[in-house]
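Supplementary Note 3. Input sequence used for the single-chain structure prediction.
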Amino acid sequence: QDHVCSLPKVPFRGAPCSDAAGSQVPYATIMKQVNSSLSGLLWDEVQKAPFYEYKDPAGQFHQVWFDDPHSISLKAAYVKSQGLRGIGMWNGNSLDYSGQAVAEQQTQAMWQALTP
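The predicted structure, written as discrete structure tokens, is reproduced below.
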């Protein structure tokens, strides 16, 4: 099926699978890779999240799911609309703090998206 990527089963604390089957990719890498990927930027309406697909040099198919300012802002707005007390990010140090102009713009947009 298009856009279906199965993960190997890596048991974790009694669950049949876990995110241990994948790995974390820095946001800077994602931003550089998405435009040259097989699929380009895709959007999942159920998860309200972007993703893309690529093949590595060995021909292995991969999907990369991530949050961007749009998906973060939707989640932050939902938190606010439900009267919840806050929102958190998995790993803010995966943003690009290299000081390059594009990186600064992307990083600032991500942090601003947390405050709807």
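The helical segments are 27-33, 69-81, 101-113. The radius of gyration is 16 Å.
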